[in-house]
Amino acid sequence: MNNILIAVNVAVLLLLMSGLFIMQKKHVSFSKRVFTGLGLGIVFGFMIHLIYGAQHEVTIGTIDWFNIVGTGYVKLLQMVVMPLVFISIVGAFTRLKLTKNIGKISILVIGILLGTTAISAAIGIGSALGFGLDGIQLTEGEAEKARNEALVERVTTVENMTLPQQIIEFIPGNPFLDLTGARSTSTIAVVIFAAFIGVAYLGIKRKDPENAALFAKIIDSLYAIIMRVVTLILRLTPYGILAIITKVAATSDYDAIVKLGTFVVASYVALILVFIVHLLLLSFAKLSPVNYVKKGLPTLTFAFSSRSSAGTLPMTIKTQTKDFGVSEGIANFAGSFGLTIGQNGCAGVYPAMLAVMVAPAAGIDPFSPTFILTLILVVTISSFGVAGVGGGATFAALIVLSVMNLPVAIVGLLISVEPLIDMGRTALNVSGAMTAGVLTSKATGEFEKEVYQRPNVVEA
Question: What family is it from (predicted)?
Fold first, then answer.
């Protein structure tokens, strides 16, 4: 009987996907198809949860099949991340788009990412204090106990790595290993390796123009192929979001969300405020925040649904170049660095809120100016080194809490609402990277304002 019910659910998903395909054939805009997939997924997932429950065999079996579409789509995006980053950075050198400002670009991108992370930490602190969040009120169930036991080894890893050691992790000792994405710092390592290849090309261009021209032609051809692959995959976005959000809605622990409702609301208030900061920064740069939201929303929606900054990277880069008018080199630098440095949501808001929540348990006054300033500084510095140990928000929180000598058990106590909050954090991380790309591009004069201002007519 369960197999029949699972088959019915799969048939419904296929029917909904057929509807999205018909919309595509009728040339309905990409954004509308993405949001239609999102809305249908929420309704369908909630119905599955309402009828069967999150842990029922039918739900588990159904989601297992749905993962072919949802997880499969994310994997396809991840498939092109490393080739896209490598070819795009090298191509920026062969097309002379990074030769003059590479140092300035790197400093601006990293500076904006770290600066917005410091602001994110301050907002996270304010939200936690404003809502009166207290970690002492949290209780530990079986799932939370298991999560905290699993974190013990990670805490040791975090405490044993100094900031210099974490920075060393960025260096590509084996670039071929990093091209497989095997390490948490692989993306940045590939950027560094590609930059070396680009600088080497410039040297060969002066000494041996013929071979340099051949190399440039090969890179241009590879870039055209990679971007075509990206375009083909992005066409699947509405279907991927439909399957992913259906899974989220069907398997979420709504009782836990209600129980920890204040923390969830406080988190999203902080995340929204940081997003508003991004829009204000664009306004100060005399760029329309409305255009940013309209053109960036499909990418942010996918980041929200997938909870994968790495999987969103191809969309992050393409949105910057095709919709925002950012140069290819800067778009790749901002997108790649944004994966591992200065993540506004995961490394900024989240660790700061947790630190405020557990401070009273350690005998610290969370309203103390000294504590607040120290916490903002620690969060900002730690956000640069998170990639050295990997693991996103969890490791960011572990690093900050360990450095501040605060209890780390709270990280495991929030496991039940982690997926819901992580959706918003991931979208904010991606927004931070795109904002850094736009602002850097404008500051260096490598920005096509007319592209940013024109209506979004580019379809994936």
Answer: Belongs to the dicarboxylate/amino acid:cation symporter (DAACS) (TC 2.A.23) family.
Query: With 0-12 CB in 10 A as exposed, 13-18 as middle and 19+ as buried, what is 164?
Result: exposed
From residue 454, alpha-carbon distances to 162, 295, 322, 434, 450 in Å are 47, 10, 11, 18, 6
Bridge partners (DSSP) listed for residue 447: 326
Handedness of CA 270, 187, 310, 180 (dihedral sign): negative
CB 387 within 8 A of CB 341: yes
C-alpha 368/C-alpha 392 separation (Å) is: 28
Q: Are 9 and 17 in contact (CB under 8 A)?
A: no
Express each pLDDT in 386-401 by its tens digit.
543 445 677 788 888 8
Tens-place pLDDT, residues 433-442: 999 999 999 9
Which residues, at least 6 apart from 402, have a Cβ–Cβ distance to it below 8 Å? 155, 158, 159, 408
Token pair 């990679």 is at which residue? 226
Distance CA 31, CA 80 (A): 22
C-beta contacts of 45-49 below 8 A and 24+ residues apart: 45/245, 45/246, 45/247, 45/248, 45/249, 45/250, 45/251, 46/249, 46/250, 48/9, 48/246, 48/249, 48/250, 49/249, 49/250, 49/251, 49/252, 49/254
Cα distance between residue 158 and residue 154, in whole Å: 6
Q: How far is CA 151 from the centre of its chain?
A: 22
Q: Report which of 187, 192, 151 is spatially closest to residue 411, judged by C-alpha positions.
A: 151
- The Cβ-side half-sphere exposure at 15, using a 13 Å CA radius, reads 8
| 371 vs 364: CA distance, rounded Å | 8
Residues 6+ away with beta carbon under 8 Å from 294:
31, 456
Backbone angles phi, psi at 186, to 5 degrees: -60, -40
Distance CA(267)–CA(381), nearest Å, equals: 21
Paired strand residues for 18: none
Q: b/e per residue, 411-425, with b = 16+ CB within 10 A?
A: bbbbbbbbebbbbbb
Q: Do 423 and 264 contact (CB within 8 A), yes or no?
A: no
Q: Please, are residues 120 and 349 in contact by the beta-carbon 8 Å criterion?
A: yes
Q: Please name the residue that has the structure tokens 């900002």.
A: 380
Q: pLDDT tens across 98-157, in order?
A: 656 777 888 999 999 999 999 999 999 999 999 988 765 555 555 545 555 555 555 555
